[in-house]
What does this fold into?
Amino acid sequence: MVNTNFVVVELQQGTSQWLAWRHNGIGSSEASTIMGENRFESASMLLQEKRGPVILDSVPNKAMALGTKLEPEARKLYITKTGKDVRPICVQSSRYDWLRASLDGLSTNHDAVVEIKCGASVYRRVSQSRSVPDYYYGQVQHILAVTGLDSLDFWCYWPDNPALLLPVERDDAYIERLLSKELEFWNLVKQATTTRRIVLINMVDTGNPEEDTHKLQSAMQILLEFPGQDSVQLEITGHGQRTRLEMPMVTTSFCTELEERLAALIGDGQARVMNERA
It folds into this structure.
């Protein structure tokens, strides 16, 4: 049976054409960032990258370069051990053209997929836990979302050690949340500059400068966790006087969640998120 969930994109991974294609969509390695599960990169950082020009001359770090070097022998061993004839391939969702994945291995009849990891640290962690590290969970579920398959093989390889094979089942509840977040993120990438969001924070002066400063810093930190280059207006109210600060800051896409978190910090009704025409 033909898999109609995706189309194959004939690109060689690592080429400038591949980098441009990858830049103009959301790949599996970006899923955990959008879900807020990547401790090395925030969604706001990724948004700035996606809104900018494609970078064609990026230099991979040592770990990435080693992983790329070891991947062919890891894939060859996987084929030998499992009998599944897979090859690296790029695929794009038939439903969402921005939903993309550069697969380490897909079978000829498109019914089996493998994600290969080659690194000492990930090998050590998987060998101890016998589970997929949480920071890769979004990646593997993104792959299953694109391909429509029910499971994926997570193949962990490190030279002179027995390779580790972990079957990963499709998590439809997670995929539903993932696609919702990714769609909202991609809409932000494409968002017209005529609309901006304003965050109004009315914070009453408690008379304790240290406490007030801490609350303000905490509020700003919350704002930084939300993607979207917008204008932020901070209204700080105290002793009948009001000071308004306006500054560019990475802020919100998920307005309800943002308001709830700010309310927990500074009190109900003290923070509002509004859309405003620029």
User: Anything to note?
Assistant: The longest helix spans residues 62-82. The longest strand covers residues 195-204.
